[in-house]
Structures
1.
Amino acid sequence: MLRVPLMIATAVAGASLLSGELSAQANALHFNPVVEKLSQGKPFIGVSTGDLSLENARTLARAPVDYVYVDMEHTPLDIEGLHVFLLGMSDRGMVLKKGNLQPNVALFARFPPEADQAAWVVKQALDIGLMGVIFNGVDTKAQAIAAVQSMRYPQPRGSRYPEPVGKRGAAPGLATWIWGVTAEEYERRADLWPLNPDGDLLAIVMIESVEAVRNLDAILSVPGVGAVFIGAANDLRLSLGVPASSPEVEAARQTILKGCLAHKVACGITVNSVSDMTRRLAEGWKMIRTTLDVAREGRAVQGQR
């Protein structure tokens, strides 16, 4: 008579143990796969896109990359389309296979407003579940601080990371659905790495002007700046007043990289070939933007996922 209750109790205990193991695993992992890599000192590779189709979302969700960023600075600003695209990237099969809530590919986006005017669009982007924002036109320390503040919630009393003061409004219902967590857990995780070691959001600032290079040290000193991406192909070389092939462009790249290495901030660049990727990784660049074909071939050459 005791066998059935005992079997039920054993099954419940086993399920509870498994649940506990998965919870512990989830707590040990960053939800953001890019932050997970950066926390281990590894580089991350990704692509940009303006195609918000569900077909493209499904393709990129299982692509051999760590991140995708949607460029809405130079394409139409479409938050609803971005939300549908993110839903299309939500891969339940991969969650089941991996046994945790971390997606293989993080979704970031870049928007038209400059950093000190972008709080409203950053709020909407994070509230639908994005894990990072790329801020264009960051020329000063004040703009970098504004970028960080727009992505942070106001911190609770006694926070170990109170500055810069967060200004993000709280309404993460859609984000919790995408992340697969409770509102309480989302609030705990939705902070900026590496400012908060438990954070899963990434603030990436673009350095794309002579003024920004001049203010680089001050920009990189702002807590919460997780990565820098160089807009060298167009804006930086236009600001320098030289063609893309000018040695001054490469000199500016190396100046920015040197500053990032000194501040231990990931530095990003665009590459167009596997050999270029290999060279830039060897120099110390941590964020690589490329094409899907180059990413796939580069992964194979370097033995990465």
2.
Amino acid sequence: MRQEDESYREQMLYSDLHPEGKDRPLLVQFCGNDPAALAKACQAAAAHGGMDGFDLNLGCPQQVAADGRFGAFLLDAEHWPLVEALVRAMSTATDLPVACKIRLLPELEHTLSFAKMLERAGCRLLAVHGRLRGDPAQRQRRKGPADLGAIAAVKAAATIPVLSNGNVREQSDLLRNLGTTAADGLMVGEALLADPTLFAPPRAAASQTARVEGFAAEYLELAAAHPPTQGFRVVQQHVHHFLGRHGRGTTLRYRRAPHREPKQLRDEIAASSSTEELLGIVRRALRTET
């Protein structure tokens, strides 16, 4: 198995750790359905050092998770005994704490019961994405707002810290989300990919073009100095997010470059081969003139 290969572990787990520990506190996320394998993974990672805990992915709604029977496809009641065994195995494998990321179940009572089971099994931090798993074949699984009321109910029922995930698109959403859910913190994914300055203190007024160009230039400078171990495609994917890519096929659009033909812009990014070339693409895309 690839997981047994030391070079694979080095690439996937250890190669991006900051040598001076400036990326800590750091949790390593695992997914799977074998308690012994996950316990072994935790022990190997803990022995290497450079991390502060582990997270079990119980929220992934993609087809790969359905095919592999992990992520959100372990939320169904028939799998709860297995999930409990997974969390218990991870939490007893080392002295490091274990967190879990989940989605909502169709019935709120079932979500609360599932959350309490995770806590009993040893989960010490729970992140809740406020949407259902949905059908992995459906492209618009995330359509519609997250149910912050359900996250608030989980927070009220739990005795461990709870993170709220969903409904953050801009800075003003941060405090609004916390006020609604009473959560201990926020987990933000796509909004930070589109705007890495989301958590930064408010700055003097600047145009969107200047702001996006600024953080894109800073990111690309860092990517040139520290190339991602997963390859240049990772850098290209970030640029797609910076330009506000959404949809696919006939619905493909770039929110921050509405004047550009989206398929042409997509292909231009895909054909790039350097960070300098990508910065030029970003600058041209942000211009209002065609």
